[in-house]
Amino acid sequence: MTSDSQARALSTEPRCFSERLTGNPGIAGFYIPFLKALYAGLHKRYPVWVISHAGHIMAPGGTKVTGTLNDSGAKEVDDVFGLNGQVEHKLAFLRNHVPKDRKLILIGHSIGCYVILEMMKRAPHLQIVRSLLLFPTIERMAESPNGKIAVPLLCWLRYALYMPAYIVLKLLPESLRPRLARLLLRGLNINVNNEITVPASLTFLQMPCLANAAYLGSQEMRDVVKRDSVTIKENIKKLTFYYGAKDPWCPVEYFEDIKKDFPEGDIRLCEKGFPHAFILHHSQEMADMVSEWLQDDLFRL
To answer: Partner of 212 for a Cys bridge, out of 15, 55, 160, 299, CB 3.0 to 4.6 A?
Structure first.
């Protein structure tokens, strides 16, 4: 491609990218309905990407997997599947795949909100237009109702739970795994979609993926303690928080505290009854709401 044709192609490319950061487990497949609805809500003018957490899905066949981030601009990361590694993984993705002059909209869910705040702190040069933090687990995770249950399971008994999971997955024939996925989905009252939820579940029914998600969860319980109020204050005009009214991972008390500390912030409490895992049942409704929130920001580009 010549320099003239490159310039013409660049001028027709969208000026803004929307990047979606997942919760834990960080499986992009579960977010596909939300992404499709959001893309449509933005009139198909802006690319919408989602990034799985490192180690939470198996690499496609034939893909070479290295123990590093394979990025010359990345910091040396020993713990690639922990919280720090996940932050660097997302920053490496932006360096490698998004032109530096592009503006960004970051949308985080659950622990993805913590990752976004870390990205904003570590890479202040990023041209972030808006960061939407949905059901944000950015503080006191171990003290939350679900955290009190998760701490013994993820921090004390994690290795003991690996063995039965390993035995079941080792003995279960590949041909029966889709059936197991459907049973688990029905048991959790999740729509059984052979094109979306079943493949996403199958991706996760691999011992390395389960272990990496549990390991990340243990770090969340230990390390996500104090809210990063400094980063929030520095970026308050770019941030929108959306808390659940009955969220066992970030109770209303956390909403009230951050609202009191940042009265000037765009901090909202859900009035629609959406659960923490909204992607399982309310993708369309959430996407409609998010696309509406973004209209003013996109209009000013």
So the answer is: 55
Angle at CA of residue 201, ends 200 and 203, nearest 5°: 65
Q: Alpha-carbon distance 245 to 250, whole Å?
A: 9
Are the C-beta atoms of 50 and 22 separated by less than 8 Å?
A: yes
Residue whose structure tokens are 């972030």? 128
Entry pTM = 0.89
How far apart CA 18 and CA 157 sit, in angstroms, is 38
263/213 Cα distance (integer angstroms): 35
Q: Select which of 52, 110, 131, 201 is catalytic.
A: 110
CATH of 16-53+75-300, one of 3.90.1310.10, 3.40.50.1820, 3.40.50.720, 3.30.1050.10: 3.40.50.1820
223 given a catalytic annotation: no
Q: Give the start-to-end residue ranges of the domains of the chain.
A: 16-53+75-300
Tokens of 167: 């035995």
Rounded CA-CA distance 76/85 in Å is: 9
Amino acid identity, position 288: D
Per residue in 207-256, pLDDT tens? Answer: 999 999 999 999 999 999 999 999 999 999 999 999 999 999 999 999 99
Residues 6+ apart with CB under 8 A from 171: none
247 is catalytic: yes
